[in-house]
Amino acid sequence: MKPVRLAVIGAGKLGGYHANLAAKLEAFDLVAVADPHPVSCEKLAAKTGSHAVAKVEEVLDRIDAAVVATPTATHYDVVTGLLAAGKHVLVEKPITPAAAEATKLVAAADRAGVVLQVGHVERFSPALVAAGDAVKQPRFIRSERTSGYTFRSTDIGAVLDLMIHDIDLVLSLADSEVVEVWATGLSVLGGHEDMASARLVFANGCVADLTASRVSYELRRTMQVVTARGFTAIDFATGKATTVSPTHEVLRGEFNGESLPAERKAELFAGKLFEEVLVKTQHEAPPVNAIELELLDFATAIQTGAKPRVPGAAGRDAVAVAERILASIARNASVERTLHRAA
């Protein structure tokens, strides 16, 4: 198949990742890097063997597709122009700051007959892939995503910057309508929330607790998933997954720990419990570059007409839930202020 002629819009850190990878992949012909800041743009273009342009409009007639890695506030306008020109788009998460804008982009992509993919890169995590069927039909999900303050993406808060990854993952795993949202948040260093905690309740009974912070001294990207068949812990940072699978005796409710002889209890307590009753398995997937897999998925969708793993509609749905979380944070903050005045 012919390589996809590509432009990367945005010469920042994330745009750099995409451009450097695309330049090495046979699936792409990296035509240009577009950014209004000439120094960073020319440097990245020179490194990747592409052209530096201030605006993507300068090369529209020479590309088939674009990766949009610009500030979130600009996504709607940039992607709208690309779709109107009939170009395929991979836009970094979140697709837009508002669900209404995302809905318009999804409709525009459908009208143009082009691919609109969203950069929820955790869907390509080797740890998630390693977990496989163990995380299907979840009953309870708990995620934690924390990092230090990077001074990037300050046009949005922790919900759209960090938690949006886990919102997308939870929606894809639960595969059900969100019927209840409760959330709280706190601004520490800026005008947006830097810490947030949310509980989502789904129509099928699944419950998800999500925590995000960008003012933490600890880097953490973890998720725990409980199903009727067992428990799975995923570490997105290390690419490892651990499953705990109860034996058939436990699943059928036939295991009674109280009735065990003292020697058997001691044996299980000493370490056999997670070998013989609640069987623990460590899954170590081969190291992969998730952004590279995301780009290859984009190329495949363009070249074959296959649906991308994270289509525009999925990005829209994640933002819609994020809006409900932010609304709940705002309501609870109002209540806190009212109580504080009353005190």
From TrEMBL:
Disulfide bond found in the keyword field: no
What InterPro entries does the record tag this protein with?
Gfo/Idh/MocA-like_OxRdtase_N, Gfo/Idh/MocA_Oxidoreductases, GFO_IDH_MocA-like_dom, NAD(P)-bd_dom_sf
An example Pfam family from this entry, by short name, is: GFO_IDH_MocA
Keywords for this entry? Oxidoreductase
Organism, by scientific name, is Botrimarina mediterranea
Q: Which EC number(s) does UniProt give?
A: 1.1.1.312
Domain GFO/IDH/MocA-like oxidoreductase positions: 145-230
Q: What is this protein called?
A: Dehydrogenase
